[in-house]
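Translation initiation factor 1A
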Amino acid sequence: MSDSDSRNDLRMPDDDEVFAVVTDMLGANRVKVRCMDGKDRTARIPGRMQKRVWIREEDVVLVEPWDWQDEKGDIAWRYEKQDADQLRREGHIQ
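Structure:
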């Protein structure tokens, strides 16, 4: 089975999460993301991810927008490159 034939079961967004692409690194554990609901948000990298998961520009992530401030959110998950490619192939993200 070739690499393109294999399909991983990926973590999909919960009701309060949205796919996003990292557009800019802001420093201080913050990144600028372009969400698939059409909004640009400032997202925090939570402490549990800071040293374990490296986030770079163009990474595909799941963002949980804040209830009280819609232009901000928290990063909930980062997809590996091959998983992000699979999401693009399946039409979940542009």
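Confidence is low (pLDDT under 50) at residues 1-5.
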